[in-house]
Amino acid sequence: EAGVTQFPSHSVIEKGQTVTLRCDPISGHDNLYWYRRVMGKEIKFLLHFVKESKQDESGMPNNRFLAERTGGTYSTLKVQPAELEDSGVYFCASSQDLASGRAGEQFFGPGTRLTVL
Amino acid sequence: AQSVTQLGSHVSVSEGALVLLRCNYSSSVPPYLFWYVQYPNQGLQLLLKYTSAATLVKGINGFEAEFKKSETSFHLTKPSAHMSDAAEYFCAVINSNTGFQKLVFGTGTRLLVSP
Predict the structure, then answer these.
(1) Averaged pLDDT, A63-69
(2) Which one-letter DSSP state was computed for residue B30?
(3) Would you call A56 and B34 a contact, using CB atoms and an 8 Å cutoff?
(4) Chain B interface, best mutation among A106, A107, A113, by max B CB count within 10 A
(5) A116, A15 Cβ separation under 8 angstroms
(6) What residues of chain A lie within 8 A of the CB of B90, using their CB?
(7) CA-based angle B52:A26:B44, to the nearest 5?
(8) Which residues of A touch B104 (CB under 8 A)?
(9) Cβ B107–A110 below 8 Å, yes or no?
(10) Among A76, A82, A106, B51, which one is least packed by beta carbons within 10 Å?
């Protein structure tokens, strides 16, 4: 079974540019999450999709961040325009539906390291 | 609100020595607790989890953790460290207030293992 994949693994952009991160969850996982780790700090929740619907986007920093999950499969996270403080590692995770009895077990991808210069 | 505190951003041990990584949590309702490990250039991997069953939880690679409600702790231990255990370890909490969907992490502890 393939794990959660993320693309790109690294991205270096200039302040003011746009970057789009992609996440492919484990096949069949309805729940998809985005988290971010700013250097030296804790991993913080950004948002949660169930299929194509946003269930919780309370962690999104501001309106420069836009997440989508069209068709309920892969997800993209766009940052436009990027600022210096957006630098960090962006993790994606997926999990099965709660009904499976495995609530809370989230499988993480390797992350995308974003550097904004 | 829920939170996690991991004492020590870095822990150094010798190969064969006991590993103890500390985690204290705060949760207004019964929590589920997790330890994740991140090896270089890899994603977070679940080591073990506590979900209100047995308080002593055994995980992969010889790690275990004990849930102590009175101390609000969930420390991670391994009797004998191996060089391959060098990685960053994250404690996380989740509870019903967020529908068991939003993991709240500590700041992580990097384990260094010397020969």
Answers:
(1) 96
(2) P
(3) no
(4) A106
(5) yes
(6) 43
(7) 60
(8) 45
(9) no
(10) A76
B90:A56 CB<8 A: no
Q: Cα separation of A23 and B90, whole Å?
A: 22
Q: Which two tokens stand for residue A76?
A: 């993209």
Q: Does the pLDDT value for residue B97 go beyond 80?
A: no
Residue A69 or residue A104, greater confidence: A69
Listed in sequence order, the residues at least 6 apart from B105 whose beta carbon sits closer than 8 Å to its beta carbon are: A35, A42, A43, A44, B4, B90, B91, B92
CB atoms within 10 A of CB A39: 7
Contact A43 B90 (CB under 8 A): yes
Q: What is the pLDDT of residue A101?
A: 44
Cβ burial of B29 (10 Å; 0-12, 13-18, 19+) is: exposed
d(CA A111, CA B40): 11
User: Residue A111's pLDDT is what?
Assistant: 94
